[in-house]
Amino acid sequence: SVVDSIGYGCGTKLPHNITGLLGVMDGHASDLRTGLPWQMVEIHEPVRLLVVIESTPERILCAVEKTPMVKRLALNEWMQVVAWDPDTGALSVFEHGKFIPYLPESINISIVDRSISWYAGHREHLSPARVLAAMENLPAARDLPS
Description:
This protein is α/β, with parallel strands linked by helices. The chain is flat, with a radius of gyration of 22 Å. The chain has 4 helices and 9 strands. Strands 4-5-6-7 form a 4-stranded mixed sheet.
């Protein structure tokens, strides 16, 4: 609903009319929109801006302290901030006012034949997977323009 609020969410709430306690309608003569306001958000986290900054966590914290609006966005988790240390290559995630080292859940990536093989029957968050069917349609390196 965050990505396409008209198609999957409730859009503007101003003209909504509650209809039979089943859902809402836009105005007095629209299609019944059942399941609002929770349509789709029960299985997806809200989309947040991910900002990866190539710098040390200390330098980023210093810059954030000087910019109250950015500090508020980061502290309230309206955006995610990641420090990518140019010297070590280490990643750190900004959480609760400080950077903590990023630890991946797994270094193993599953390989599946098709997307549906990975997500069929699941509603929870799944780890990334390499989809072989998607790789079949990619041009070979020799076919790419130089």
